[in-house]
């Protein structure tokens, strides 16, 4: 009895050697608004902070912001203020996204920093 299945044969796997991902962003919103914004934000963030620390801080913020509503409404009856829960969790996810985007710009777009 075989416990695995071969989905891709050798002929399929050999094609990955020649594959190269390339993408070009031509959106006006991205080119004129978002890229300049993130380039300025990266300059405000200190370079001595390790990338793993930024990722960990973002994860901890996200986790804490999901933990707070759980503590406020421990039996999940929605007795705590719904606005606080929604605002709190969305703020944590936004901070996580913000730190992740700073990492992306700093270490992929500006490889020497």
Topology (elements, then pairings):
Layout: H1 10-14, H2 28-44, H3 51-72, H4 82-109
Helix pairs in contact: 2-4, 3-4
Structural write-up:
The model has no long low-confidence stretch (mean pLDDT 76). By secondary structure, the protein is mainly alpha-helical. The protein is built from four helices and no strands. Helices cover 64% and strands 0% of the residues. The protein has helices at 10-14, 28-44, 51-72, 82-109. The longest helix has 28 residues, at 82-109. The protein starts with 9 loop residues before the first helix and ends with a helix. It has one domain (27-109).
Defining traits:
mainly alpha; 113 residues; 64% helix; extended
- Estimate the helix proportion, in percent: 55-70%
Total discrete domains: 1
**What's the rounded overall pLDDT mean?**
76
Order of helices and strands: HHHH
Q: Mind telling me the C-alpha Rg?
A: 21 Å
Structural class: mainly alpha
Strand runs, count: 0
Most strands sheet? none
In a nutshell, what does this entry contain?
The protein has helices at 10-14, 28-44, 51-72, 82-109. The protein has 113 residues and is an all-alpha fold.
């Amino acid at each position: 009895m075989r416990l695995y299945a071969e989905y891709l044969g050798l002929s399929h796997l050999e094609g990955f050697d020649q594959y190269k991902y390339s993408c070009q962003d031509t959106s006006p919103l991205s080119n004129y608004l978002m890229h300049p914004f993130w380039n300025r934000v990266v300059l405000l963030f200190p370079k001595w902070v390790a990338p793993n620390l930024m990722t960990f801080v973002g994860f901890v913020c996200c986790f804490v912001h999901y933990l707070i509503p759980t503590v406020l409404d421990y039996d999940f009856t929605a007795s705590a203020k719904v606005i606080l829960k929604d605002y709190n969790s969305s703020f944590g996810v936004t901070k996580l996204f913000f730190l992740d985007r700073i990492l992306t710009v700093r270490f992929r777009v500006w490889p020497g920093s």
